[in-house]
Amino acid sequence: MTQDHTTAPDAAPASPAPWRPARTVAVILAGGTGTRLGLGIPKQLLKIAGKPIIEHTLAVFEAAPEIDEIIVLMATGHVDDARRIVADAGFRKVTKVIEGGETRNDTTRIALDAVGEGDVNILFHDAVRPLVSARIVRECVNALWTYSAVDVAIPSADTIIQVDADDCITDIPVRSRLRRGQTPQAFRSGTIREAYRRAEGDPDFAATDDCGVVLRYLPGTPIKVIDGSDENIKVTHPVDVHLADKLFQLAAAQAPRLTDHRSYAEELTGRTIVVFGGSYGIGHDLAELARGYGAQVFPFSRSTTGTHVERAEDVAAALKTAFEATGRIDHVVVTAGILEKGALAEMDSETMDRLLHVNFVGPVTIARQSLPYLQQTKGQLLLYTSSSYTRGRARYALYSATKAALVNLTQALADEWAEFGVRVNCVNPERTATPMRTRAFGEEPEHTLLSSEAVAQASLDVLISDLTGQVVDVRRSPGEQVAAVPAQPGPHRSELSADA
Questions:
Q1: Number of domains the chain is built from
Q2: EC number(s) for this protein (predicted)?
């Protein structure tokens, strides 16, 4: 796709003036109406991972140090919706939210008018590509120091065929030279303006993307192609919604990790964390880790404080204790859970009730009781699921079912509580060495289990992040060794969180 700029053999090499843009502007193209998704709202307003798609997209450019300004071209009739999203999210770089045009040609012209005159870097990006990476944005801007037009693309994994009007193959291009285009597309302002100026004289002009306009009307202009990513998908069809949601889930596993003790201390000193199920395992390790960084931590459990998570009065008393002691509650963590093995048909009513109440009614009760406190601090509720939530497991069907329910609860509450500024996430550890797991499954090879300390650290990273609505996978690092964890004495129940 990159063209070679050729000159006559005896021509002197060109010496253009150095490119010195006044600023770099990201233009977010949000004119789609969502007809292919069958929605009553534009697809860019559809919520994924707790936020509208366009908010995820804007957040990437807001955070990019290479971007100075953001302009949003919104679908007709929905400008106010976009403005509310910008205001609520506090995006400081967004200077204009205006209506786009009826066609792609019109929209680009409106965007160029909105950018104004002068030498400017311009990046055009689809609002419904919310998983664009900071790396792609950076490389696009950097490439504009050398090239006046830049595209983003990935190799085609599929063989591309060309067909005629009867859907018969006429050609099979060499796949190694083919790419699938993405956005952003980046330009020096003078280049894209000149391409559109020339296009105005063509009665057959109809743009599908802006690099195509440069390719057609400014032949000989090199268009640099940088590597996109498989994750940078465009949400166009119903299946894309589910794919994007899963990709956000995978991305969440990379919750930002701070570099040193001092950084964690700066984040956590003065915060109040309430841990339900904080006696052993992950809950205990998280409490100890957070205390070491200066947080005020209040662990509650059935065994140490007599707190039953399924009892509203017990939960209320625990939260009141923490609030009265510190005047705030920033984070509520629910690691409490029990795992009882056995065929459902053979399980007695008392065991079933205990499983359902501790594993699901408990987190629901804690969520309801915690909201008033978390609203005050714009805090976070953190729940725990298990890999069994993706597919129910024989002989612990109710455990699997309650863990799947917690995932849905996380996503639903993240949506409901977004207006309050309260975040909700769910940690999904792989098989973890905890007393509960040892009691249920016996001794297992050490190298196959994740340490509870590692899950606690990842949980802390999620608490101090801006994530919401995410299921955060925590996986064992290659070569990590953990010690076997002895089962705690007592009945076959535990207030511990463990993947099973």
A1: 2
A2: 2.7.7.60
- How do residues 443-475 score in pLDDT, each as one tens digit? 556 655 577 888 899 999 999 998 888 888 887
Residues 73 and 126 occupy one common structural domain: yes
**23, pLDDT greater than 90:** yes
Which structural domain range is residue 321 located in? 253-474
Are residue 280 and residue 184 in the same domain, yes or no?
A: no
230 occurs within a structural domain: yes
In-domain check, residue 248: no
231-250 tens-digit pLDDT: 999 998 889 988 888 787 66
- Give the CATH number of the domain where residue 442 resides: 3.40.50.720
